[in-house]
Write a structure and sequence with these properties.
Chain A has about 270 residues and is of the alpha/beta class. Helices cover about 35% and strands about 25% of the residues of chain A. The chains are: A alpha/beta (about 270), B mainly alpha (about 260).
Chain lengths: ~270, ~260
């Protein structure tokens, strides 16, 4: 039985005018799998992630995780955002301890947890800094550690490295793979970057223009652990090429419809 | 840092010296404009005799009492309005109607309601201090980034935890700003109301000196009011810095 099961998921936003963000979207994800979702801007990738997190309600279809329907947020399903969204009044340590504190984990145990994840993401020495004193890459490390401190079974990542410079991005991609191997969880990773998707994932899923649904589902049979050298290989290149051919028509049709600029990824 | 601190003293010092020269030259009748040295002399004598301290004390007491009541009420109602649509519908129109009324326009009503003792004066301070605090509390909480709340919910926070662990801390810079504005308001209001009707307090001291044509005492009182204001603002600044130690220096600039 798949760990994450989404069947005919529909999401309609009823603001001033009705917008169908997702329509008959179905996908299965196995336990501990690393799946990336790519697609044009505004296709509803981020919306789908919020549905999985239980932060938005779906309008139709069903989403089951670990056999149970998703009915609201759950600390076992953590989400990491592109904008980090750290709590600016809390130090690095206190940010990471937020989840355990909410769960009323006693102070000493909490400290053990934060120590562990500070080490895991390589933030030793920065425990008592405030977010505004950190670089973008470090902030995202904190956000990842904060998400992991609840020991989630699912890690949802919404373009987590999208705001980082290329070098920081490369470094964090590698670290994420290491962390994923250590923390043992299912990752659903939304990105704009085809090469990032291929590099990180077991499977890459391509979404259509709005209303978003799954267009293609491609297994990436590259050996693990992955490294940057693989990116120069012909296998990697052909995966990238095939995905690009799938994504491009979506982007150009989005532009032709004039809704490519709306950037309505709610 | 140190040097700019000293530089800040220069311009007041120049003004004082200029006033001293004008005062002594006999260009202006010292009755209208006593030399700073005369003001300080009478200030000194009021301090030496001890007569000024009860006035300062009672003014501070009224201001602080009113301020605390306003702060508690402002925080409470601010949170209520931000929390529920219903409370917003009840309080928002009332706030909009009462806020623009000049504090001193309410003085006669307060005298009728609370007498001419400390009660009415405290009530005036409450009116003066309440609105900056309540409005900043509402704006602060409503201005919290919805995505930050989402992040907190995904980490398991809900209900009251969202308030104590996310909304209030996130709104704190705004709330503290409102509280600092109100410290200044309290000083403005207390002096004003003491001039209108009081037999004690620093505002009374100034108006009483004017009535008895003791202009040097009058100016001495004004110096004290200025120093009290500066002192209170310093205290507020220290509190602000302590509470908001996490806050970025850049965004503190707008606050300061």
């Amino acid at each position: 039985m798949p760990f994450i099961e989404a069947e005919n998921v529909r999401k309609v936003f009823a603001a001033r005018k009705k917008i169908t963000a997702l329509e008959s979207l179905s996908i299965n994800i196995a336990r501990n799998e690393f799946v990336s979702i790519i697609g044009p801007s505004g296709c509803g990738k981020s919306t789908f992630l919020l549905l999985l997190a239980g932060l938005e309600q779906y309008s139709g279809g069903r989403i089951h995780i670990d056999g149970k329907p998703v009915e609201g947020p759950d600390p076992k399903r953590a989400i990491v955002f592109q904008e980090y969204l750290l709590f600016p009044w809390r130090t690095v340590r206190k940010n990471i301890e937020f989840g355990p504190q909410v769960r009323k984990v006693p102070g000493e145990e909490r400290k053990r947890i934060s120590e562990r994840y500070i080490r895991l993401v390589g933030l030793e020495g920065f425990e008592n800094r405030y977010p505004h004193e950190l670089s973008g890459g470090m902030k995202q490390r904190v956000a990842i550690a904060r998400a992991l401190a609840n020991e989630p079974t699912v890690l949802l990542m919404d373009e987590p490295f999208g705001a980082l410079d290329a070098l920081t991005r490369e470094m964090l991609q590698l670290e994420l793979l290491r962390i994923w191997q250590e923390a043992k969880c299912t990752v659903v990773f939304v990105t704009h970057s085809i090469s990032e998707a291929v590099y990180l994932s077991d499977r890459v899923v391509v979404m259509s223009n709005r209303p978003g649904r799954i267009l293609a589902d491609m297994a990436i049979d590259l050996p693990r652990p992955r490294n940057r050298d693989m990116m120069a290989g012909s296998d990697f290149f052909s995966y990238e090429q095939r995905l690009r051919e799938l994504v491009w028509p979506q982007i150009s049709s989005a532009d032709a419809n004039g809704n490519g600029n709306e950037e309505n990824e709610v | 840092m140190k040097r700019t601190k000293y530089k800040k003293i220069i311009s007041p010092l120049v003004v004082v010296i200029a006033c001293e020269i004008i005062g002594r030259s006999g260009l202006v009748d010292p009755f209208f404009f006593p030399a700073p040295s005369a003001m300080l002399k009478s200030l000194w004598s009021m301090m030496a005799s001890g007569e000024i301290f009860p006035h300062i004390g009672i003014s501070v007491l009224r201001a602080v009492t009113g301020y605390i009541i306003a702060a508690v009420a402002g925080l409470f109602i601010g949170v209520l309005v931000a929390w529920s649509r219903m409370c917003e519908m009840i309080f928002d129109p009332l706030i909009e109607l009462i806020r623009p009324i000049s504090t001193f326009a309410l003085v006669p009503i307060m005298f009728v309601w609370f007498g001419i003792g400390n009660g009415s004066k405290t009530a005036i301070i409450v009116k003066a201090c309440f609105f900056p605090i309540v409005l900043n509390t509402i704006a602060g909480i409503k201005g919290v980034d919805g995505r930050l709340v989402q992040a907190a919910r995904s980490l398991g926070a809900g209900g009251l935890q969202l308030w104590t662990m996310v909304l209030i801390p996130s709104a704190l810079p705004m709330i503290i700003t409102g509280m600092r504005i109100s410290t200044a308001m309290s000083m403005l209001a207390i002096v004003g109301v003491e001039m209108l009707a009081a037999d004690s307090g620093i505002g009374f001291l100034v108006i009483d000196a004017q009535r008895t044509f003791a202009t040097d005492r009058m100016f001495a009182g004004i110096i004290v009011i200025s120093l009290m204001g500066v002192g209170l603002d310093r205290v507020a600044r220290v509190v602000q810095r302590k509470v908001l130690s996490w806050h970025e220096e850049s965004s503190m600039a707008g606050v300061g």
